[in-house]
Amino acid sequence: MGSWPNRLRLVALAVAALLTVGIGMPLRAQGIDVSKFQGTIDWRKVKASGKVKFVYIKATEGTSIQDPMYKRNIDSARAAGILVGSYHLYSKKTTAYQQFNNFKAVVKKDKQDLVPVLDIEERYNKDLYMARVDKLLELMEKEYGVKPLIYTSEKVYWDHFSGKKYKDYHIFIANYRRYPSTRFTLWQHSQTGRVKGISGDVDLNKFHKNHGIGEIKLPKKKK
Fold first, then answer.
1. What is the C-alpha separation between 76 and 105, in angstroms, rounded?
2. Which residues are identified as catalytic?
3. N or C: which end of the chain has fewer CB within 10 A?
4. In this structure, is residue 183 part of a structural domain?
């Protein structure tokens, strides 16, 4: 079993290892993502909380769904001084062109600070139709001038996005139980965060220690 000092040393090493990968560390909300489910948000209070540097706001889903709170959220968040980006919830039921046209109609380039996000939920994993996903990523990149972030679960990442084909994409991983086993730029580490100005739960996101906000900012327009 080892001596008591040795056991203490092993415990200290184990704690240090956990801290190195991020488990056990105070989880600071560097960013959040929101949709109509957060209701009416007081973005000035969100900004004053000092916790939120950026927000991803749901814009569209599939071919025709447009989040009713999108315009209010993006205008008010920007006015409060928070960096904003927009996301599209992927649907396996409609074409890439139809989904892109829905997103483009809502998400105006001049109101974006951050690269767009393609949100791919795990429930579509069995029938993801990767040719459709690839085309949608391509269309978004062409319109906004930068590769979109790919948001998904670890399972979907390992099943579809872990190969060399996607090595140049930033990955946004959702895992609420432990530190991700995948590579990632952003980690959605909680569904039950609390931030002043938002009534109820909100998703919390933080960067990998080797990444930062500059990597997901849209390129500045040349004057």
1. 19
2. 33, 121
3. C
4. yes
